[in-house]
TrEMBL record:
The gene is ugpA. It comes from the Bacteria. Keywords: Cell membrane, Membrane, Transmembrane, Transmembrane helix, Transport. Its main location: membrane. Residues 20-47 are annotated as: Disordered. This is SN-glycerol-3-phosphate transport system permease protein. PANTHER family: ABC TRANSPORTER PERMEASE PROTEIN, INNER MEMBRANE ABC TRANSPORTER PERMEASE PROTEIN YCJO. The keyword Cell wall biogenesis/degradation does not apply. It comes from Renibacterium salmoninarum (strain ATCC 33209 / DSM 20767 / JCM 11484 / NBRC 15589 / NCIMB 2235). CDD domains: TM_PBP2. GO terms for cellular component: plasma membrane. PROSITE patterns: ABC_TM1. One of its GO terms (biological process) is transmembrane transport. It is found in: Cell membrane. The keyword Transmembrane helix applies.
Length: 343
């Protein structure tokens, strides 16, 4: 072996000669990627992910810390009474009694097979349609008036919204003093004009009209303020462009304002329906016996705490009300919302 020259054995020289190939004819293959430790060596390589890392565990504990109190409160004060009420609806039970008899669905059968069901459901439908429709239509008209640059509009907004924040009991007492056929203010005005005062309280049909008027008056401000917020959030350039094109105010309202107000209308429709179906305080104060005003909510009270004292039957009516509210909400969310135009 000379200095600086590497001598190869004959076997090594033959191996080098056999591995020489023409690079222009043989493609160069890319090396296989290294397999992950512990991965699948037979086919496609899978990488195992760790879902419960220190960060995800910390986020889970933070979520529980904030959500658990609300979950406990909702479970105790909402779902537990709901389940208990469904159980009570299957009992023949008098309120305050220690004894109850399981009767299955007999309370529901009794309600739907009696003449009271048609009366109660019809009264509920009339009350709901007129209170919701009246509040929303009049609220929209008032919102259109308050959106104009008129003197004293700030005071008018406060005056319109004030009845909504008042107690329903107080509102009922004040209006009862107005509608009283003997000592009421309206009766005094009509007698001074030589007219007889209608029997608002004693006539079932007039009683329903009376509570509808009062309920619309109380909730009018809420609808007006919500509609006013929707009108003020509209893009002014669209209205100005339509005005320059020669569109009248009525045409702009029908073609532009109403479609843009559809999210507001949808929101008010849901909240107003739920509120109307659960109305109680004004009905109880103005018509204590429920004559002509026995909606589902009021009938539930009358059956349990009135002269009937049927707690199980009352629970069945409240379950019917719950199912009705659930169905109406689902229908609105599934079908009515499709026609809502979100800008």
């Amino acid at each position: 072996m000379h200095a600086g020259v590497l001598q190869l054995e004959p076997m090594q020289q033959s191996e080098i000669t056999m591995t020489r190939v023409d690079s222009s004819k043989t493609p160069v293959l890319a090396p296989n990627p290294p397999s992950a430790p512990g991965g699948d060596q037979s086919g496609g390589q899978k990488i195992k992910r760790r879902y419960w890392t220190a960060r995800t565990k910390r986020d889970a504990w933070i979520f529980l810390a904030f959500a658990l109190p609300n979950i406990v409160l909702i479970a105790v004060f909402t779902y537990r009474p709901l389940i208990a009420n469904i159980q009570y609806s299957m009992l023949d039970w008098t309120l305050g009694s220690d004894f109850a008899t399981a009767i299955g669905l007999q309370n529901y059968i009794t309600f739907f097979s009696s003449a009271d069901a048609a009366n109660v459901l019809g009264t509920t439908a009339i009350f709901t349609v007129f209170t919701v429709g009246g509040s929303m239509v009049l609220g929209l008209l008032i919102a259109l008036a308050l959106s104009q640059k008129l003197p004293g509009r700030t005071f008018a907004r406060s005056a319109i919204f004030a009845p909504y924040v008042l107690s329903g009991v107080g509102v009922g007492l004040v209006w009862l003093f107005i509608f009283d056929p003997v000592y009421g203010v309206l009766s005094w005005v009509l007698r001074s004009l030589g007219q007889n005062s209608p029997q608002w309280i004693n006539d079932p049909k007039l009683s329903l009209v009376m509570v509808i008027i009062v309920y619309v008056w109380k909730n009018l401000g809420y609808c007006a303020v919500v509609y006013l917020a929707g009108l003020q959030s509209m893009p002014k350039d669209v209205m100005e462009a339509a005005s320059l094109d020669g569109a009248s105010a009525c045409r702009r309202f029908i073609s532009i304002s109403l479609p843009l107000l559809s999210p507001t209308t949808f929101f008010l429709l849901i909240t107003s329906l739920l509120s109307s179906l659960q109305a109680f305080d004004i009905l109880k104060i103005m018509t204590p016996t429920g004559q002509g005003t026995n909606t589902l909510m009021f009938e539930t009270y009358l059956q349990a705490f009135g002269s009937y004292n049927k707690a199980g039957y009352s629970a069945a009516i409240s379950v019917v009300l719950f199912v009705l509210l659930l169905i109406m909400t689902v229908v609105q969310m599934r079908f009515v919302e499709r026609k809502v135009h979100y800008a």
